Amino acid sequence: MARLLRNECLPNHQPRLVWDATQAGTFSFAFIVTDAYGTQAAAEESIAITLPPLLIANLSPLPGGQVGVAYSDTFSATGGAGPPYAFSVYKGTLPQGTTLTPAGLLSGTPTTYGTASFTIQVADLGANTYLADFTLAIAPAKLT
Questions:
Q1: How many domains are contained in the chain?
Q2: 144 belongs to a structural domain
């Protein structure tokens, strides 16, 4: 989807339309221009909108954690229709004792050791989605 934010006239009297695009596609529109003498002209145009690819910026494997030690890492995204981005677990299971917020914060205190494999989904402002696979290794608690 695209919407016209404003119509501007540049200093050289060239018109400029400013758009806000949240989805890719081809959009058609009609317009009428009127000059200072009241002469009008009409036209129809199409514009092709492409968005940069939506990506999760984090790389796998994630920084490791340890049983009984607070863990925190934040997922971030780029591209697509832009923020706000919403993160969720699409497939798999996070390490026990951790959770993922929609803002992308993975945190908690792991309660079991091992390697967790999971898929994170991110959705952008235009409801475009992207999936990425991650692993997170949790080490056993240190013996004291």
A1: 2
A2: no
Confidence class for position 10, pLDDT limits 50, 70, 90: low
Pairing of strands 65-66, 86-92: unpaired
- Per the CB < 8 A criterion, the answer to whether 118 and 91 are in contact is yes
Q: Which two tokens stand for residue 65?
A: 């954690």
Tokens 């968005």 locate to: 51
Q: What is the pLDDT of residue 13?
A: 62
Measured CA to CA, the distance from residue 140 to residue 120 in angstroms comes to: 24
- What CATH number is attached to the domain comprising 67? 2.60.40.10
Tell me the helix, strand and coil percentages in the chain, rounded to 5.
0, 55, 45
Do 107 and 133 share a domain, yes or no?
Answer: yes
pTM of the model: 0.75
| Same domain as 65, residue 101 | yes
Mention every residue, 6+ apart, whose C-beta is less than 8 A from residue 11. Answer: none
Q: Which of 5, 24, 48, 46 is nearest to 126 (CA)?
A: 24
Give residue 12's pLDDT: 67
The pLDDT of residue 135 is 98
